[in-house]
């Protein structure tokens, strides 16, 4: 393939038409189309549902608009977001993708500082995967943050709001990661070698700051004691993201490097399996002790109440089963794939537990009709849980499409999955 060179980067010259119409893009297009379908449905419900009145009910009582209007009036339910459960699947997916993507970047930076050769050869591919996941997470959160009104954030800024913690973070973090990838694939070796160590150290510092800010956002939500009483929330986010990231990195390695690494693939998998095992031990120890500190009302719901099945399913899937498989130090591609899938699904369930668990118990003891009651005709509740609206699920699928398109575009331009000898 012919290449052009800009700023030390070798850029592949390829047919854009062939790339966009290639078979490998079919799945990303399908996922993105589902996401756009969900996006259209969300915004139609947020902005275009008609107001309900007696005339509407008499003329067309079975219409979708009338039924949605009645739900809003009587039960306080409107569209995909419920007033008593505002942090739902959007936040789950944002957390999973951004934290896991950052975890991949964090682990690669640590491995490079430790001079682990097999990671240095594959660092560009891993970091690009991490960056693509961050974009997928930001796509999800943009829907939750109501992007049609985003300009008010700048016209009437509230600098103590969580968004003003996130915005500077990503304005710095994303270009920083891009510069790291540039150093990995540039042919300006002298510059790359001079900047390698300070950039890697800065990368780790920036990653820790990112996890701290994210933990701070949850800790600021004082009504939800599940989050505010979690001990060392930053550490929890880092360790749980390491578990998720190791599963993603193992699966990615077997898909991407099976042919190019050949016998060296076992060295890469050995390292990633070791990271996964240590991370799972720490995560298991954390979960075993954290609930000694969590608000008792929330702890009861999570461990002994309606959430107990999901909590123990998360522990078994994210830690128990993969630990047993990987502890054997097997080199079987099949069993490592099985363990990776359990880790990915289990850690995603863990994020669901964390976010939905924060809404599970009534938030505060307010004056009047009671903290469990949100509408005149709504029954009093001591436990709150809503299954996600289908449009939320479609948007999550769309975010996977975003990840795939970002990764495939960078791969087509720079061949980042090729082994690098920097």
From TrEMBL:
Transmembrane regions listed in the UniProt entry: 20-39, 87-111, 123-143, 163-183, 195-213, 233-257, 269-294, 309-327, 334-356, 383-407
Enzyme Commission code(s) on record: 1.12.98.4
The keyword Oxidoreductase appears for this protein: yes
GO-annotated cellular components: plasma membrane
Highest taxon of the lineage: Bacteria
Listed GO MF terms: sulfur reductase activity
Keywords: Membrane, Oxidoreductase, Transmembrane, Transmembrane helix
Record PANTHER family: PROTEIN NRFD
Protein name per its UniProtKB record: Putative polysulphide reductase NrfD/PsrC
Species per Swiss-Prot/TrEMBL record: Sulfurovum sp. enrichment culture clone C5
């Amino acid at each position: 393939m012919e290449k052009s060179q800009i700023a030390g980067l070798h850029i592949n010259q390829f047919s854009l038409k062939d790339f966009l119409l290639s078979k490998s893009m079919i799945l990303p297009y399908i996922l993105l189309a589902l996401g756009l379908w969900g996006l259209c449905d969300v915004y139609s419900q947020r902005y275009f549902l008609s107001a309900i009145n007696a005339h509407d009910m008499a003329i067309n009582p079975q219409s979708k608009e009338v039924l949605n209007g009645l739900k809003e009036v009587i039960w306080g339910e409107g569209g995909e977001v419920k007033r008593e459960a505002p942090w739902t699947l959007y936040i789950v997916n944002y957390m999973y993708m951004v934290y896991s993507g950052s975890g991949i970047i964090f682990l690669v930076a640590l491995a490079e500082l430790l001079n682990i050769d097999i990671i240095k050869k594959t660092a560009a591919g891993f970091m690009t995967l991490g960056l693509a996941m961050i974009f997928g997470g930001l796509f999800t959160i943009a829907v939750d943050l109501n992007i049609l009104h985003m300009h008010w954030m700048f016209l009437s800024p509230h600098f103590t709001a969580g968004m003003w913690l996130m915005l500077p973070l990503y304005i710095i973090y994303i270009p920083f990661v891009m510069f790291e990838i540039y150093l990995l694939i540039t042919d300006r070796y002298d510059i790359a070698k001079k900047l390698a160590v300070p950039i890697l150290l800065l990368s780790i510092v920036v990653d820790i700051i990112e996890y701290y800010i994210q933990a701070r956002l949850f800790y600021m939500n004082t009504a939800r004691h599940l989050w505010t009483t979690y001990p060392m929330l930053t550490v929890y986010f880092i360790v749980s993201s390491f578990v998720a990231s190791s599963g993603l990195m193992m699966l990615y390695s077997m898909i991407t490097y099976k042919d190019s690494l050949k016998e060296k693939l076992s060295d890469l998998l050995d390292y990633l399996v070791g990271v996964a095992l240590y991370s799972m031990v720490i995560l298991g120890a954390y979960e075993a002790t954290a609930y000694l500190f969590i608000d008792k009302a929330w702890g009861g719901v999570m461990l002994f109440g309606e959430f107990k099945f999901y909590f123990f399913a998360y522990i078994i899937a994210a830690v128990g089963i993969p630990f047993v498989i990987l502890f054997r130090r097997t080199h079987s591609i099949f069993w490592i794939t099985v363990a990776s899938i359990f880790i990915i699904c289990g850690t995603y369930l863990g994020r669901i537990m964390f976010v939905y668990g924060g809404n599970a118990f009534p938030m505060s003891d307010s004056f009047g009709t009671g903290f469990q009651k949100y509408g005149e005709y709504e029954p009093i509740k001591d436990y709150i849980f809503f299954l996600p609206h289908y449009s939320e699920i479609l948007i999550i699928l769309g975010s996977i499409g975003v990840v795939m398109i970002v990764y495939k575009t960078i791969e087509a331009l720079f061949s980042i999955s090729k082994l690098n000898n920097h």
